[in-house]
Amino acid sequence: KQWYQRRVYCGSSNKSIRELLDHAGLNNCVVKAICCRKVQPTPSDFMLKSIPFMDHTKTADCYYSQEYKVATPNLDYKAVMEFVRAEEYKSIGMILKDFDVTMDFAGSFDKDEVIEYLVKEHDFRMQGDENTLSP
């Protein structure tokens, strides 16, 4: 029964995530549940209230977060970044921890020049900068 409940939760969350991405014009993304992690410390009231399908009359000794991987191959990078910056994903209780956009390029690049260009010209941030997308 517990396995079935997890499967139903992951399946319904996958569907919610895909519907949100489709609504944003990010069609054909691959959404996959990858792991459950114990949340330490206990989540804030705001977080608990945003959990989908939760019975708010019950409390738990511990909470787990379901992590998903969203693959966005062959999508317009600008459209993906607009979705990320709009933070609409928070409406279904999602928290964005990491985002991977893979793009194929031909030829060779100077890593330092590419980093400098993206930071200066396209509003990218270096890992660890103060102005990040984390909650």
Structure characterization notes:
The protein is an alpha+beta fold and 135 residues long. The chain has four helices and two strands, in the order αβαβαα. The protein has helices spanning 2-23, 45-49, 77-86, 111-121, and strands at 30-39, 63-71. Strands 1-2 form a two-stranded antiparallel sheet. The longest helix has 22 residues, at 2-23. 2% of the residues are buried.
Describe the protein's topology.
Blueprint: H1 2-23, E1 30-39, H2 45-49, E2 63-71, H3 77-86, H4 111-121
Antiparallel strand pairs: 1-2
Short summary of the structure?
With 135 residues, the protein is of the alpha+beta class. The protein has helices at 2-23, 45-49, 77-86, 111-121, and strands at residues 30-39, 63-71. A two-stranded antiparallel ribbon has the order 1-2.
Distance between termini? 33 Å
- The strand line-up of the biggest sheet is 1-2
Task: Tell me roughly what share of residues is in helical segments.
Answer: 25-40%
Number of strands: 2
Structural shape: globular
Oligomer: single chain
Poorly predicted sequence stretches spanning 5 or more consecutive residues: 1-8
Strand content: 5-15%
Q: What kind of sheet is the major sheet?
A: 2 strands, antiparallel
Q: Give the helices and strands as they follow along the chain.
A: HEHEHH
Number of helical elements: 4
Give the radius of gyration.
18 Å
Structural class: alpha+beta
Could you tell me the mean pLDDT? 76
